[in-house]
Transmembrane protein 106C
Amino acid sequence: MGTRLSRSGSSLTLLPERQLSGRRGEDRDFDNDSLDGLDRREDIAQFPYVEFTGRDSITCPTCQGTGRIPSDQVNELVALIPYNDQRLKPQRTKLYVVLSVLLCLLASSLVAFFLFPRPVVVVDGGIRSVSVHFDQSNMRVLMNMTSTLNLSNPNFFSVLVQSVNCQVLYMKTVIGTRQLNNVTTILPLSQSQANYTVSVEIGSSAPYVYAFCTMPSIKVHNIVVLMQTSVKTSYMVRTSQNSLEAYRYIDCGSNTTYH
């Protein structure tokens, strides 16, 4: 006949296997007699939530024995995570940081490349035509000079040509001026032309010019004039100005068209 060990407090007792079986049967009969199904569920529901830490047990201080955390303490409680938890050891952190930095550098470079303002290129296209009139009574030479400006926009946004200001001088004397406002708008990465006409008058300050321009024995009546042109452009929040100076030969004896 076999024997079983039975623990009672801190001592051990040897019980025969038959006696142990009989005791188990008596315990089951006692449980069935003392608690039916309904009473057992009620007792279990009233049994407090405890933490088993060995020989002694304590009631959970957070949930107060109910097994649930009060809703008014949700924002006050802190969950403890073991030090070796994988959530405290994120992977590929350096890789994500490097990729984020590279993406930021790439985005900033693209923005700087497309939005960085570049100066507008202004080239004097020369004189297109000259129409001449003579005032015999006052010995004046009246001319209308039409000139051309070639404008290039290297930016990725439109540029507004705000004004074109031209001044014509002959022998350091101003003989004509012209100012145009809101001339044209240049599209991104494109070119445009701006034509403007300046009325020129050479009179009493240089009477020999009238004699020279009306002298029939001379076939070509060329005189030299100085043209000073300034072009003001604006784009985004920036305003720039281009200045041009050029000496031009014009025929003051007859109408002329240049190709």
Helices lie at 17-34, 37-46, 93-115, 207-213. The chain has four helices and twelve strands. The mean pLDDT is 79.
